[in-house]
Amino acid sequence: MKNCAVILAGGEGKRMKSDKPKTLSEVLGKPMLCWVMSALRKAGIDDICVVKGFKKECIEEYLSTLDFSVESVFQAERLGTGHAVMMAKDFLKKHSGNVVILNGDAPFMDSKTIEDSLKAHIENGCAATVISAKVDDPTGYGRIVRDENGNLRAIVEQKDADEETLKINEVNSGGFWFDCQLLLSVLDRIKSDNSAKEYYLPDAIKLLLEDGRKVGAFTAQCSDTVLGANDPAQLEQLNEIARTKGYSC
Questions:
Q1: Does 15 participate in catalysis according to the annotation?
Q2: pLDDT digit string, tens, across residues 31-69
Q3: Which helix (H) or strand (E) holds 185?
Q4: What distance in Å separates the CA atoms of residue 93 and residue 163, rounded to the nearest whole number?
Q5: What's the pLDDT band for 169 if we cut at 50, 70, 90?
Q6: Which end of the chain is more exposed for a tag (fewer CB within 10 A), N or C?
């Protein structure tokens, strides 16, 4: 039962003012995508599929320079995170273990968090486990809503959250562990009946809960795991954090 990974790297990142895919923007001279793959490999996961989209040839060219092999699939239309994972369906079908799905523009998702969340995912017998973090300012993030026993009840997006939910400072990192086969059982049931007409991966969590499956939330020790960059200023902040805290790829 070999575990695998899917990295979402299809985004354009219009505000980056760059002519390359967002995940190739660099932190300390290395593409953010490189940071994510490096963390996965340090965690013992080398069976990786990258979902490419905008300027796919740039991603292909970068992957061809690596000294290890990575699969890639093309998301022609970018219709949300759930849709991106649907593009990797054939990759998932080849696996009977667990898959971790990560954003390719979250460079500080570290190997320890990946390893520890997998351990919790397996020990708790979960169909899926959300990697969460507690942050000072949760604005913009999906909130982790737990029941009185601490079990995950829902992931509520900022725009759908009521006043009480907005006070929650535990947020979705965008990283998820899934049992491969159980993910495949709900993937095609994700609908795009929302204002953006997109397919959202957190809806897979909702469907698994509705199916009576156990879903967990693992809180990362370091809140930096949720950080990404949407514009050059935020990218510079990531570089500054990496320099100050001694992070390396």
A1: yes
A2: 999 999 999 999 999 999 999 999 999 999 999 999 999
A3: helix 180-187
A4: 41
A5: very high
A6: N
Among 30, 70, 75, 26, smallest CA distance to 55 is for 75
The count of other CB atoms within 10 Å of the CB of residue 134 is: 16
Q: What are phi and psi of 184, to 5 degrees?
A: -60, -30
* 181 φ, ψ (degrees, to nearest 5): -70, -35
Contact present, 93 and 183 (Cβ < 8 Å)? no
Q: Is 21 helix (H, G, I), strand (E, B) or coil?
A: coil
What does the buried/exposed string (b/e) look like for 80-106 if buried means 16 or more CB atoms within 10 Å of the residue's CB?
Answer: bbbbbbbbbeebbeebeebbbbbbbbb
pTM, 2 dp: 0.95
Confidence at residue 159, expressed as pLDDT on a 0 to 100 scale: 87
Query: Rounded to an integer, what distance in angstroms lies between the CA atom of residue 179 and that of residue 10?
Result: 23
Rounded-to-integer distance, Cα 117 and Cα 9, Å:
22
At which residue do the structure tokens 């982790």 appear?
144
